[in-house]
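ok trying again, last paste got cut off:
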Amino acid sequence: MKEINSENVRAQMRKGLLEFATLLIIARGEAYTSDIIEELKKSDLLVVEGTLYPLLSRLRTAGILEHRWEESKSGPPRKYYSVSKKGEQTLQALTESWKPLQTSIQKLIKE
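nice, full thing came through this time. structure:
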């Protein structure tokens, strides 16, 4: 019987929650990619740009995120992301799904 690699399991759980966590951060207000990464790191959801950029692109293509460009004095223009109307609905649905899931897992942990 093969042993479970707990680090691998944690990485898969983080990956599964990354979209939800990213939307929660952007829903607070417009966000630049490095700001999103910083917030994720503060929450112990370690992520690298190579993981986040495809996620942001996928969410934008799905109409969940919008973006705008802003000129930067210290380099190339910056892309700032915001949650669209569809994104607000998606975030609400994810939040409603999360609450009972969290409760269920907490019950299992306590038992």
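cool. The chain has a mean pLDDT of 91. DSSP finds four helices and three strands in the chain.
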